[in-house]
Write the structure tokens for this entry.
Amino acid sequence: MKIVFAGVVVACLLGRAGVAGAFWILDADASAIYEDNVGLGKFKRDIKSDSAISVLASGGPAFQLDPSTIVSITGDVSGKLYERFTGLDNAALGLTATIRRKFGLGAEAPWAHAFGSIARQQYDNDLRDSWIYRLGVGAGKQFGERWHASADYIYDRRLADHNFPVAPGIPGDVFDLSGHTLALKSDFLLSERLTFFGGYSLRIGDVASTTQRNLPIFLASTAVSADPAFGKGFFAYRVHADVHTLTVGLSIAVGQHSSVNLEYDHVIGDARGGITYHDNLARVGFLYRY
Amino acid sequence: MTRLLGGLAAALVIVGAAVGPPSGAEAGDVHAVVNDQANQPLEDAVVIAVPEGGSVTAPVRAGREVVDQINKEFVPYVKPIVVGSQVDFPNKDNIRHHVYSFSPAKTFELPLYVGTPATPVVFDRRGVVTIGCNIHDWMIAHIYVAETPYFGKSGTDGKVRLENLPPGRYALRVWHPRLQGAEESAARTVTVERSGAVDVAWQLPLKQELRPRRSPVPGQRIYR
């Protein structure tokens, strides 16, 4: 609530100040998602699939500081509702500040940006309630008429509210996580309305994996807690992992402000102790941008 | 004396401009139809009639033209003008635009502005000038700078009417932003009589329209 209030105050003050070159931006997305390993388990007995509805809206003022530089401050609201594992239902409120600079004139001029965000994420299941902080830098460029490519580095830090230990001497704040991500993205214009997009990201850091009692993951973990979101007998383990994500998708323009998007993600997590998990996500979404 | 002669020359130019092309019994028309390769009417095709071999003396009437910016788009998308015309680029949005062109026929830049820049841009060379906005990469328009005053642009029905052309032989060209190949490849020669109309039809091969997309692509953001 404090975040929203702060965001509204900042937006109103800037708006009232009549800052030159100010305008409003808005992105809104609604998606249906199917995920075949929501708990990020390794063994078949732990692999649980589910479907979810996800919504996201991000909007606020942007300021054209000079011909090349834009600063934006957006309020971000998101929510996700699961079909089976309702303990994973969540809502988040946040603020994101971004500065973006274009180096030169024309559509093919390269650009760079830096951003920081803070968000409060509240789950149906308390264990996951947390504050999430992200800092990132990135750059991109359009190549010719069809290609656009960008790269981002992101540091993320998630601070969990609760510490529910289940084993003496082992922390229970499983969702206290941090990581470093390198993300490469590209999109290719197939036709006037059709764009193919894809990407690869590597995140090195903590992940939370939920399984039934499991000695190898227990030995590799740095925190353990019971995870009632998946039912009795399930435990969430925090492990250090290299997570590779491959994304491919198709974006279909619907008018000037909207698109329908089909996306597939394949995730491979390589954790300490030879623990490897796979996760597949399919997403169909409607994206609106003002 | 110099001032007097200058004033006289200016007066002659104004009178010449006011007289314009002939009309009535001493003029003919060209009725053109432009279709795409699927034989569908093609909007925004520019048809140009260039008098051949000095058979006609074309009065060049350079004027002041406008290309608007409305709802983050250039309006119109295609604007034919005659060489020497001045063009204003009023920004009718409540945000700033930054208009530029890299085209050899006219390179210019109107850095970040609202309203209408005080000085119009003069287009003094024949050719196609593609303009863009440096803030909104999807904003693109084309200014066709013709060496003749006899030109027109097709509407949604693909039809162009060039009226009141002095009788004589003309090279007819057609251009479109998506035209495949050089515009000279589709050139025709016609004779305009003292009255009546010459009918011309084109079926143009077009390439895909590829420009930065305005509608959102996941992960790609414009302002952040």
The CA atoms of residues 29 and 150 of chain B lie 10 Å apart. Confidence is low (pLDDT under 50) at residues 1-24 of chain B.
